[in-house]
């Protein structure tokens, strides 16, 4: 039985998820909410180790199914060790990426199939879907430009994929918007950071006050 709220943030590379989610955390804490900010893959020791394996640019031999299974394994451990306990304590869990990333990246862009990747992830998440997902919508080319300008950011194995891969990821998210219209809300991520933050906060507030 979970009592908190599970909110995930999704979107292509460079859409501003990590920047904005930190601002959302601050704004919600200021309003008196108990918030846990975390990310996938990672968030806890075991999952951060899996992250290093998946995203290491030298691991070019990684098979797509192996990749999908590793994301699912990291997800399972993060969920049971960090997310579920926080939800039980009534916290708002803000998670930078979750199952929709697997569906868009591995399911659609890698071509494994959204239904197939959904099914391996059911074993990992056991029906624990987010209460709400904010999808940061941005042209993948613009997202990649933002990333390239950010000199301090580590470049991971997936960043190094061709633009066509990132376009497929974008296409995958559009399919998810059609599949989960109730859960996934679109945020226009092309606006100024402050505006994106404001729009996202408004959407979360609506979820938190709609009991
Ligand atoms: N709305 C915005 N307008 C312009 N630049 C932005 C905006 N949002 C974020 N950025 C910049 O774009 C870069 C990528 O942002 P960020 O790391 O938050 O994206 P992300 O969606 O988390 O990316 P990834 O999924 O690849 O980690 C950063 O340099 C950030 O400052
Ligand atoms: C959870 C998840 C992530 N990915 C990809 C998306 C990004 O390329 C990286 C994570 O890096 P970020 O800087 O933390 O966004 O992993 C994926 O392909 N599948 C997933 O399930």
Automatic annotation (TrEMBL):
Gene Ontology molecular function terms on file: ATP binding; dTMP kinase activity
Q: Which UniProt keywords apply?
A: ATP-binding, Kinase, Nucleotide biosynthesis, Nucleotide-binding, Transferase
Query: Catalyses which reaction?
Result: dTMP + ATP = dTDP + ADP
State the species of origin. Jeotgalibacillus proteolyticus
Q: Which CDD domains match?
A: TMPK
Function summary: Phosphorylation of dTMP to form dTDP in both de novo and salvage pathways of dTTP synthesis.
Name one process (GO BP) from the record.
dTTP biosynthetic process
Name of protein: Thymidylate kinase
List residues binding ATP: 11-18
Please indicate which superkingdom the organism of origin belongs to. Answer: Bacteria
Assigned protein family = Belongs to the thymidylate kinase family.
Q: Name one GO cellular component term.
A: cytosol
Q: Name one Pfam family in it.
A: Thymidylate_kin
Instruction: Look up the EC number in the record and give it.
Output: 2.7.4.9
Indicate the segments forming the Thymidylate kinase-like domain, all copies.
Answer: 9-199
